[in-house]
Automatic annotation (TrEMBL):
<keyword id="KW-0472">Membrane</keyword>
<dbReference type="GO" id="GO:0016036">
    <property type="term" value="P:cellular response to phosphate starvation"/>
</dbReference>
<dbReference type="InterPro" id="IPR036890">
    <property type="entry name" value="HATPase_C_sf"/>
</dbReference>
<dbReference type="InterPro" id="IPR005467">
    <property type="entry name" value="His_kinase_dom"/>
</dbReference>
<feature type="transmembrane region" description="Helical">
    <location>
        <begin position="12"/>
        <end position="34"/>
    </location>
</feature>
<feature type="transmembrane region" description="Helical">
    <location>
        <begin position="157"/>
        <end position="176"/>
    </location>
</feature>
<dbReference type="InterPro" id="IPR003660">
    <property type="entry name" value="HAMP_dom"/>
</dbReference>
<dbReference type="InterPro" id="IPR004358">
    <property type="entry name" value="Sig_transdc_His_kin-like_C"/>
</dbReference>
<dbReference type="InterPro" id="IPR036097">
    <property type="entry name" value="HisK_dim/P_sf"/>
</dbReference>
<dbReference type="GO" id="GO:0005886">
    <property type="term" value="C:plasma membrane"/>
</dbReference>
<dbReference type="Pfam" id="PF00672">
    <property type="entry name" value="HAMP"/>
</dbReference>
<dbReference type="GO" id="GO:0004721">
    <property type="term" value="F:phosphoprotein phosphatase activity"/>
</dbReference>
<dbReference type="Pfam" id="PF02518">
    <property type="entry name" value="HATPase_c"/>
</dbReference>
<feature type="domain" description="Histidine kinase">
    <location>
        <begin position="239"/>
        <end position="451"/>
    </location>
</feature>
<keyword id="KW-1133">Transmembrane helix</keyword>
<dbReference type="InterPro" id="IPR050351">
    <property type="entry name" value="BphY/WalK/GraS-like"/>
</dbReference>
<keyword id="KW-0808">Transferase</keyword>
Amino acid sequence: MFRNNLRTKTAIVFISIALISIVIVSITTNILIINSFGNYVTKSTDKEFSNIANTLAAVYKSEGGWKSTTGREIGHAAMMEGYGLRLRDKDGKIIWDFSSMSYMMNMMGKWNKKNISEKTLPIIVDEKTVGYVDIIYYGPIMMSDLDFKFLCDISRYNVIATVIAIFIALTISIYVSNYITRPLINITEVAKKLEKGDFTAKVYDIPKEDELFKLTAAINHLGESLKNQEILRKQMTSDIAHELRTPLTTLQSHIEAMLDGIWEPTHERLKSLNEEVLRLINIVKDLETLNKFESDMLKLNKIKFDASELVKSILTNFEASFAEKEQEVVKNIEDNIMLFGDKDRIAQVFVNLISNSNKYTPVGGKIKIDFYKDGDYAVFVIEDNGMGISKDDIPFIFERFYRGEKSRNRETGGSGIGLSIAKAIVLAHGGEISVESEINKGSKFTVKIPL
Ligand code: ADP
């Protein structure tokens, strides 16, 4: 009958807990009220009973014996109040009897033969028993009509309160179980869409509760990264095709021209074709590096190492390249900066940046390199007065295959992958990479890596 789902189950659990508590509370209050009310009534009736016996004794005394009229009005009044009296003399002979009349009066109403109680009290005058009065009443204790009405009212209010409480409990239970399960239902729907390849799916209704918030954030993050990967994958394929097509077409048309005898296969021409092939090989090599890095991005081989020494040794390796272009290099390397990270990959970042500065700064230019500690970060800054990057290019230079306008047609330009590799490595270490540059004035790259 019930579907086997969390919403129904939580609702059933809440409702059951609420119902059980309500029933327990209402039963105990009912018992408590009836008991304490019963005690009160018993005490007051005991007093009333001895009053009846005392009054009858007084009447007996003043009339000097039992007549058929003695104390009748007392019996009558009792009958009006809902209980019966029977007066007997000391031998047990009935003088008058209002009990059957009371019984008759109440037959229609609340009285029920089974619940009739009877109590007999002696009537004592001058320490001698002169007769007996039987008190006949309904129930285990004697209650007047008012008492009875009071009890009925209490029971009725108890029932009304219980019904209201059950209604409130039902409403709250359904609300709470819906509230808890709604985010899960939303997340399931989004997960189903992601499974079908709709990576734009997202949970918009973010719950405030910590656990549900984290779960929602995780699924949204998953969707986001699947979407990005999808975009990257498509972009990558078209980029690769584009990058390879141009040099291949050039090669093909040049070779064809030579085969057709239009062009002499001179040394110069073959050398230029060879350079083009080398460029292609370089592109493929870069792609391999990037792919390798991105496919096992999470597998950083982290160790603790002296980053200051690393920077210094890389700079030594570049001395020849700087000398070749007669570039002035200013170094400020703070000693003993220890980093915990993938040493080879971080080296690759520094190499890429230094190589770019060397490449894009003309003969006789100036390059300044700073490496220092700033708070919780190791900061690497490389500044050159080279060709700079145009405002339009800056947002894209960290993208794969993107080459600045000026370097696009130059032999010196690489494949446009270096900075994307550098950025991927820095991000994987929880760091940041940024650039400030002005065309024809120079560029400044800053890398921050957490210590
Ligand atoms: P590339 O292999 O072309 O150097 P990168 O990803 O390393 O690829 O750099 C992307 C582009 O950013 C370069 O083509 C170049 O236009 C620009 N660039 C990078 N570093 C510098 C620099 N120091 N000065 C001027 N331009 C730079």
